[in-house]
Amino acid sequence: MLKIEGIRKAYQDVVAVDNLSFEVADGEIFGLLGENGAGKTTTFRMIMGLLEPDKGSILLDGKKIDYSVTDKIGFVTEERSLLTKLTVKEQILYYGALKGMNDIDIIKQLDYWLQKFEIKSYENKKIKELSKGNQQKVQFISAIINKPKLLILDEPFTGLDPINVKMLKEAIYDLKKNGTSIIFSSHQMEYIEEFCEKLVILVKGKSILDGYLDDIKNSYGIKKILLNVLNYDISNLQKIKGVKSINKKNDYYEIDIDNERAIDLIFKEIKKYKVIKFDAVKPTLSDIFIEKVGGYHE
Fold first, then answer.
1. Where are the alpha helices (DSSP H) in the chain?
2. What is the pLDDT of residues 88-125, one digit of tens each?
3. Are 71 and 99 in contact (CB under 8 A)?
4. Whole-angstrom Cα distance, residue 121 to residue 200?
5. Nearest alpha-carbon partner for 86 in 129, 134, 140
6. 20 to 30 A Cα–Cα from 150, which one of 2, 88, 246, 277?
7. Domains plus CATH for the chain?
């Protein structure tokens, strides 16, 4: 388990992370969200032992993170961090050695992941000869070659097509199943919703929202109705109390409401007509993120 309690980090007069606390259990995928400059990278660097927090504590399985613990941490960065003149095999042998592995174990793990990612034929190719997507696969392998206890994923799907995204997703779920604690960071909220049970949203280093994703969504209630009804003037719904806006989508209307009482009022209004679609939906994580983070720009 990773346990972060009350950490703070300032660069002179700028506070990058301010009193941040969260826990990531074994086999749990935790979302760390925020705009650029929110404090995510500083948090990652403190977790990996590259920066020392000004106050607070960071413990992995009850132990302070130092060089005896960092070998148990893997990190996939958004930017490429590969040595492009090395071959894939040379690259992974190098990273595995840095993690204290012997060559036999490195090659065994490398063979497994190259087969899984369908790039076995690239083993002796130089990194610079690979596509961006295949470079990202190699970067992922370099982060997990030693079966890390904790894995940090920062925009892990950058440069990947849908087929390769599917491969990486399966690998992430395998790591979760085998007990790896995972911190997942992405601006693509659909990935956070798919992977993460718990999350925290940072603004200027402070947590402005944290908890279980389902609980967060439930607390916001239903804010939209997706509606398709035949032979009805949809503009009539504007007269109903609680209806904020109506927007035309492909084959339905998206109706924003500010209270759940409007759901019954809308249904009573259109039930005499042929209703093709009537879905009351909770806000997406993207909706919540925009509402919460956007308020700090006002």
1. 40-47, 88-98, 103-116, 132-144, 162-177, 189-195, 213-220, 261-270, 285-294
2. 999 999 999 989 899 999 999 999 999 999 999 999 99
3. yes
4. 40
5. 129
6. 88
7. 2-217 (3.40.50.300), 222-281 (3.30.70.330)
